Amino acid sequence: MTASTTFNTHFKQYLETVQVKGNAVPTGLQELLVAVADTCMTLSHEVAQGALIGLLGSAGTGNVQGEVQQKLDVIANDLLIEGVKGCQSLAGLASEEMELPVAVQGTGDYLLLFDPLDGSSNIDVNVSIGTIFSVLKKQDPAAPLQTTDFLLSGRHQVAAGYVVYGPQTTMALTLGDGVVMFTLNRVTSEFVLIKESVEIAHATKEFSINMSNMRHWAEPVRRYVDECLAGVGGERDKDFNMRWIASMVADVHRVLSRGGIFMYPWDQREPHKPGKLRLMYEANPMSFLVEQAGGASTNGDQLIMDLIPTDLHERVSVMLGSKEEIERLQRYHA
Ligand code: AHM
Ligand code: MG
């Protein structure tokens, strides 16, 4: 499936007409985003079939991170490559599932990064999963593609988004001028605009973290969560709610939809790794979305978007969402 398909016309029209800080979206970027959206539409259909088409379970392979790949991890990765490689505007792509970037035939200078299937542990239990993507511009369009072309801070992203495959298939997208959401109409195969100007409230009473790792956390994170748990009468004097889906894409979708914060902080299980989540495929695109919705995103010491990557598969400690809570976490880390 390529950008030349005749469906998804709403999304195409949106990209043709929307203004980003007073400018039209470059046609090359439109072409790439339509190809990503078309592919995610196909993926959504596959995900919905699950066991009926033999998609559940392990692929029997490992990825570059040393993680066991599920069949859907591999299928999603292949579908995305197939779906975008014909884009003339694309210079290359990189995926969480592949050690090295792939140069494509395009003559353009866009770089696409993606986590093809986020939340892999949820595939077999029919819980929301998703695709996360980030678009950069190659600094030297004429030079042959190298891994270092991708090593740009999150501030260089020209677009980012995710598609969550849940009860509905919903895409969140930023082009650097706010955040919008589209929901897939499965009957007409259209991503339909459902929300403009997505905003994350600055204050919240909801946090999201894998509590089973509590004994491994650093002191500032432990203090923050302890204070949330103390409820009315404690340091914060308010009762907090906790949610944890274990698919970043679904947890961040909740944050963008009704506020809150999401954390996957560094912990002592792997003291020499800076965190679990991947900077280029997960943290940067999600941080771009969250900042564009009025929230904040930090590794504790620095805003995620300011980090200069040194490795394509670099990992990072992530805390993102409602601004007041993220600022509090930053103070605790100072
Ligand atoms: P994945 O990209 O291999 O699916 O891993 C990332 C996922 C995130 O979506 C989620 O927040 C986290 O890993 C869940 O980790 P845990 O299994 O520790 O709860
Ligand atoms: Mg992931």
End-to-end separation in angstroms reads 49 Å
Helix content: 25-40%
Named CATH architecture of the largest domain:
2-Layer Sandwich
Instruction: Please give the count of helices.
Output: 7
Low confidence ranges: none
Provide the succession of SSEs: HEEHEEHEEEEEEEEEHEHEEHEEEH
CA-atom Rg in angstroms = 19 Å
Domain count: the total is 2
The main pleated sheet reads as: 8 strands, mixed
Outline: globular
Bound molecules: 2,5-anhydro-1,6-di-O-phosphono-D-mannitol, magnesium ion
**Assigned CATH class of the largest domain:** Alpha Beta
Oligomer: single chain
CATH 4th-level superfamily of the largest domain: Fructose-1,6-Bisphosphatase, subunit A, domain 1
Largest sheet strand order: 6-5-7-8-9-10-11-12
Topology, number of strands: 19
The assigned structural class equals alpha+beta
Give a structural overview.
Residues 27-196 form the Fructose-1-6-bisphosphatase class I N-terminal domain. The chain has 334 residues and is of the alpha+beta class. The longest helix has 23 residues, at 27-49. The model has no long low-confidence stretch (mean pLDDT 94). Helices cover 28% and strands 25% of the residues. It folds into 2 domains: 9-195, Fructose-1,6-Bisphosphatase, Chain A, domain 1; 206-333, 3-Layer(aba) Sandwich (D-Maltodextrin-Binding Protein, domain 2), CATH 3.40.190.80. Strand 9 (159-165) and strand 10 form a beta hairpin. Helix 5 packs parallel to helix 6 (279-292). It has helices at 9-17, 27-49, 71-84, 219-230, 248-258, 279-292, 323-333, and strands at 19-20, 23-24, 58-62, 68-70, 90-95, 102-103, 110-118, 129-137, 159-165, 169-174, 179-185, 190-195, 206-208, 241-242, 261-264, 277-278, 296-298, 315-316, 318-321. Bound molecules: 2,5-anhydro-1,6-di-O-phosphono-D-mannitol and magnesium ion (MG). The site of magnesium ion (MG) has 4 residues, from strand 7.
